Amino acid sequence: MADVAQLRLVITAADYDAAVRFYRDVLGLTESAAFASPGGQVTILDAGRATLEIADPAHAAYVDEVEVGRRVAGHVRVAFEVPDATEATARLAGGGAEVVAAPTRTPWDSLNSRLHAPGGLQLTLFEELG
């Protein structure tokens, strides 16, 4: 029995409105709640099933090499499974993300792209092919 009921990734975005617009309206995450505090606000977006992937430095470097061709990720990278990585990459690029690497077929039989997104996150979009 797991003691954890939910994984919630929290980012602090200097341009809050742009980040909410990107993740909610462009990527398509569903807004589940929004709250205001004195002088501030937060929006909680539902990203479906969550997992925590822990990699050692050698494996992280290997994934960067496969997806991008060089080491580019910091210690945190957020990955979203999408039904069409090519379409989603283009849509996110049009919505404010910078494409680091176009969709590439990986040895683990997925199509992965890499982007720099609002809020300072590096994203992998992946489409399972197998």
> Roughly how much helix do the residues carry, as a percent range?
10-25%
Low-confidence stretches: none
Kindly give the count of domains. Answer: 1
What is the CATH superfamily classification? Answer: 2,3-Dihydroxybiphenyl 1,2-Dioxygenase, domain 1
Q: Any idea of the CATH class?
A: Alpha Beta
SS summary, helix count = 3
The proportion of strand residues reads 25-35%
**Could you report the average pLDDT, rounded to the nearest whole number?**
94
Number of strands: 6
Distance between the termini: 30 Å
- What's the main sheet like? 4 strands, mixed
Pfam families: Glyoxalase
Domain VOC: 5-128
Protein name: VOC family protein
InterPro entries: Glyas_Bleomycin-R_OHBP_Dase, Glyas_Fos-R_dOase_dom, VOC_core
Summary tags:
Glyas_Bleomycin-R_OHBP_Dase, Glyas_Fos-R_dOase_dom, alpha+beta, 130 residues, two-stranded antiparallel sheet, VOC family protein, 3 helices, 2,3-Dihydroxybiphenyl 1,2-Dioxygenase, domain 1
Describe, in plain words, how this protein is organized in 3D:
25% of the residues lie in helices and 33% in strands. The protein has one domain: 2,3-Dihydroxybiphenyl 1,2-Dioxygenase, domain 1. The mean pLDDT is 94. The chain is built from 3 helices and 6 strands; from the N terminus they run αββαβαβββ. It has helices at 16-26, 57-67, 85-94; strands at 30-37, 40-46, 78-81, 98-105, 110-117, 121-128. The strands form 2 sheets. Strands 3-6-5-4 form a 4-stranded mixed beta sheet, with helices on one face. A hairpin with a 3-residue loop joins strand 5 (110-117) and strand 6. The protein has 130 residues and is an alpha+beta fold.
